[in-house]
Fold this protein.
Amino acid sequence: MADDDDAVSVPEELVTYIANTAGRNLRGVAHYDADTFAFELRESVDAAYDEAALRAIVDDMRVQDRAKPAHERLFSVGDLYCTLRAFDDAIMLHFPQDDERGTVVSLLPDAAPQLTDFIYDTLAVLDRHSEQEIRRAPSWQR
C-alpha cells in the first residue's frame, strides 16, 4: 500500500531476502521517505490496518529517524543501524537511513525465540525482584 502514485516502493530484493529468511514469521516490510510510503504485508496483517493507521506508523518512524544523530552521539557506541521493539504479537525492526527515509520489518515473535525468551525472563526477574511491576506476561510466553 502506498499513499500516492509517486510513492517509494519496497525493494523486491529486500522482500525476497526477508521472506526467505523469516519464512512464515514475516508479518510485513515497509519502506518510506519524507512524503511517501509503501508496505508489503502479509494478508492477515494488511486486513488489520487501514491506510490512516499505516500512515500513523510511518509518521512515528519518521520522528524516530530525526533522533538518530543525537542517539549516536549520546551513547558513544558507534553508528545506529536498527532499533527493535518487542510487542506481544510482533517484533518490529526499524532501519533509519537518513533524516526521513527508512525501512521497517515486522516479524512474529517466533522469529527470535532466544530474544523473546530473554525478554520474558527479564520481565519475570523485574517483577519478582524490583519495584517495577509487570502486570502480565507477553502472549508469546503464555
Remarks:
- The beta strands are 26-32, 37-41, 83-86, 91-98, 101-107.
- Residues 113-129 form the longest helix (17 residues).
